[in-house]
Structures are given as structure tokens and as C-alpha cells.
Amino acid sequence: MTTLKSKLKEDLTTAMKARDELTSSTLRLTLTAITKEEVSGKTARELSDAEVQKVIAREAKKRREAAEAFAQGGRTEQAERERAEGELLDAYLPKQLSDDELGAIVTAAVDEAKAAGAEGPRAMGAVMKIVNPKVAGLADGGRVAAAVKKLLAG
């Protein structure tokens, strides 16, 4: 069992003993998503820590999107719960890049793409190919795309 998955299980046990409903339900759903990912496909397999991190990131993103939807629908109590679940899951992910750090990586990638002959908004794909491996798991794809668009536009 991977170290991240075993940490999630240990934390679930601790939360259940402490009768922390929010933490235990969030971790249960996340562990279920991990198990579902492990058994999907032709053969069952154990996920690596990096793959478990991707599942956790996907679950956290779902919580953020749900919180936005509930907030727009006027259901503030449910939105707060979704936000709390998302923050709880974020604790298991690596620290996200700041806007300045992301900007520096994107600037370097744009310069590299321009050196290779890509220019203007059509260079988006080339720049994203350079940036994505560098920021994988450290920044949300939407943030990265927005930073690249902003830099290519002007």
C-alpha cells in the first residue's frame, strides 16, 4: 500500500474515533474514489503515490466547483461544507505555486516557444506542452492556461 493511501486510512481511523463527521466522510469518499480508480480497467492494480495525488486533486477540484455552484444557487451552508472538504483534501496535496512562481515558469516557457518559432495566441499549445510537466500537481490547469493566455495576448 502506498504511503499516501495508508496515511489517508490512518487519518480516517483517527477522525472516526474523534467522531469528526466532516473529516471521516470526506476521507471515506476520497478512499472510495482511489479504490474505484484501482479497479477500473481490465486488471486491478495498486496506485502509486503520484496517481493517488491526482485522484485527491480531482476530488478537491470537484469540491471547489460544487462550492461555487452552491454559492451561486444561494445555498451558503452547503457551499461552506464543500469548501471545508476541499481545504481538508488540499492538506494532502503539495503546496500550490504562487502567482509569481507560476508567472516565472510561464514566462520562461513562452520565451522557449518563441525561440522555437511559435508566436501569438496560436502558440498556446506549444507553451502548454512546455509548462504542464513543470507544474503538474502544483497548479490548477485553469490557472496555468489563464497565465499563458495573458502572457501571449500582450
In short:
This protein is 75% helix and 0% strand. The chain has helices at 3-17, 21-39, 49-72, 76-90, 99-115, 124-135, 141-153. Helix 2 (21-39) crosses helix 4 (76-90).
Helix content: over 70%
Sketch the major β-sheet: none
Number of helices: 7
The H/E string reads HHHHHHH
Q: How big a fraction of the residues is strand?
A: under 5%
Q: What structural category characterises the helix and strand content? A: mainly alpha
Uncertain residue ranges? none
Mean pLDDT, all residues: 84
Radius of gyration computed on alpha carbons = 19 Å
End-to-end CA span: 48 Å
Q: How are the elements arranged and paired?
A:
Elements: H1 3-17, H2 21-39, H3 49-72, H4 76-90, H5 99-115, H6 124-135, H7 141-153
Explained architecture:
By secondary structure, the chain is mainly alpha-helical. The protein is built from seven helices and no strands. The chain has helices at residues 3-17, 21-39, 49-72, 76-90, 99-115, 124-135, 141-153. Helix 1 (3-17) runs antiparallel to helix 2, helix 2 (21-39) crosses helix 4 (76-90) and helix 3 (49-72) packs antiparallel against helix 4 (76-90). The longest helix is centred in the middle third of the chain and has 24 residues, at 49-72. The protein is globular, with a radius of gyration of 19 Å. The N and C termini lie far apart (48 Å).
What are the salient characteristics of this protein?
mainly alpha
